[in-house]
């Protein structure tokens, strides 16, 4: 393929927490590269998933959800989200069909004109299976009255409805140029971080409402073995001593279940045997340590 025959560029998915950005990224890429849970604010770093559509390479920037930040970590996540949009060639705003124009969506719409400078902005109304057609049309009109979107798509990221149309359109509007990643690469995250994200997802799914946002997972070591398997050692850091017991569970049952689920998903992702060892450690104030933010792909100074 010649350079002029190909297209490549960055597409930022923005929206409120739980709008379906991670699910859409994974659906577009065809593999799990972004953490997906029923809980909000689970995506912390700008995870790039790489999809091929015809002659185009689409690099999806799955940003953290946009919400009103309270803590340093929250502020760094929101800064990463807006930064991801500002760095992109195309921005896609995801809005949940059944929730409509919430106060959070209102805030995003107000800031959208400054982000739109020099880039294409599209609207994707997600979870369309939850509302009737008339309500969808009304919501689409209301949103397009507020902002002049280049295109509007009705999708279900979870079920795949409308996703192909969105992907084809994105491929057609990206800038002409050579591909930015090797053809077989689906994400630009190091394997260590992908592994940590998978374990954090399992912890988030398993644990109580508040605790998951006060824990982080780091991959301490990764050893390739002669038999083709990999030994991975990870640490779950929590902010308080009381949280350690919650993560461990009775006789270590909770952390064992988290580790087992993460190991099984890692084996499926890597296509080989994985020996995963997970410890739980208390690290008070980790949410105020620059190194922890670097590990998550966030800028510590953005939280100030």
Automatic annotation (TrEMBL):
**Annotated region (G4), positions in chain:** 126-129
Its localization reads: Cytoplasm; Cell membrane
- The entry's GTP-binding residues are 15-22, 62-66, 126-129
**Domain Era-type G per the UniProt entry, residue ranges:** 7-176
User: Which molecular-function annotations from GO does this UniProt entry contain?
Assistant: GTP binding; GTPase activity; ribosomal small subunit binding; small ribosomal subunit rRNA binding
Cross-referenced SUPFAM superfamilies: P-loop containing nucleoside triphosphate hydrolases (SSF52540), Prokaryotic type KH domain (KH-domain type II) (SSF54814)
The segment annotated G3 runs over 62-65
Q: Where is this region: G5?
A: 155-157
Gene Ontology cellular-component terms for this entry are: cytosol; plasma membrane
Which parts of the sequence belong to the KH type-2 domain? 207-284
What's one Pfam family here? MMR_HSR1
Q: Where is this region: G1?
A: 15-22
**Main localisation, per the record?**
cytoplasm
**Keyword Transmembrane (UniProt):** no
Protein keywords:
Cell membrane, Cytoplasm, GTP-binding, Membrane, Nucleotide-binding, Ribosome biogenesis, RNA-binding, rRNA-binding
Per the UniProt entry, the signal peptide is: none
Q: Where is this region: G2?
A: 41-45
Positions in coiled-coil regions = none
List the InterPro entries hit by this protein, alphabetically: G_ERA_dom, GTP-bd, GTPase_Era-like, KH_dom-like_a/b, KH_dom_type_2, KH_sf_prok-type, P-loop_NTPase, Small_GTP-bd
Q: Keyword DNA-binding, does the record have it?
A: no
Q: How does it assemble?
A: Monomer.
Its job? An essential GTPase that binds both GDP and GTP, with rapid nucleotide exchange. Plays a role in 16S rRNA processing and 30S ribosomal subunit biogenesis and possibly also in cell cycle regulation and energy metabolism.
- Identify its protein family: Belongs to the TRAFAC class TrmE-Era-EngA-EngB-Septin-like GTPase superfamily. Era GTPase family.
Protein's recorded name: GTPase Era
Q: Which organism is it from?
A: Rhodosalinus halophilus
């Amino acid at each position: 393929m010649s350079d002029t025959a190909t297209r490549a560029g960055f597409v930022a998915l923005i929206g409120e927490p739980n709008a379906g950005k991670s699910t859409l990224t994974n659906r577009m890429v065809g593999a799990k590269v972004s953490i997906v849970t029923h809980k909000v604010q689970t995506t912390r770093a700008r995870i790039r998933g790489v999809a091929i559509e015809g002659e185009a390479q689409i690099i999806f920037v799955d940003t953290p959800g946009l919400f009103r930040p309270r803590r340093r970590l929250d502020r760094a996540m929101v800064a990463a989200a807006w930064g991801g949009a500002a760095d992109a060639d195309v921005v896609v705003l995801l809005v949940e069909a059944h929730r409509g124009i919430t106060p959070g969506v209102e805030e995003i719409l107000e800031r959208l004109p400054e982000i739109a400078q020099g880039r294409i902005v599209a609207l994707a109304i997600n979870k369309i299976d939850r509302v009737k057609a008339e309500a969808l049309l009304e919501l689409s009109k209301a949103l397009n009255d507020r902002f002049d979107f280049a295109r509007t798509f009705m999708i279900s990221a979870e079920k795949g409805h409308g996703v192909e149309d969105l992907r084809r359109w994105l491929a057609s509007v990206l800038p002409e140029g050579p591909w930015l990643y090797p053809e077989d690469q689906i994400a630009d995250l190091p394997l260590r971080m992908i592994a940590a994200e998978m374990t954090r997802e399992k912890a988030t799914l398993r644990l109580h409402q508040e605790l998951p946002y006060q824990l982080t997972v780091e991959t301490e070591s990764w050893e390739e073995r002669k038999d083709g398997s990999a030994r991975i050692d990870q640490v779950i850091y929590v902010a308080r001593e009381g949280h350690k017991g919650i993560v461990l569970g009775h006789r270590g049952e909770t952390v064992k279940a988290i580790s087992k689920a993460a190991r099984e998903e890692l084996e499926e992702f890597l296509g080989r045997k994985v020996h995963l060892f997970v410890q739980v450690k208390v690290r008070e104030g980790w949410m105020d340590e620059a190194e922890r933010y670097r590990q998550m792909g966030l800028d510590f100074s953005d939280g100030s």
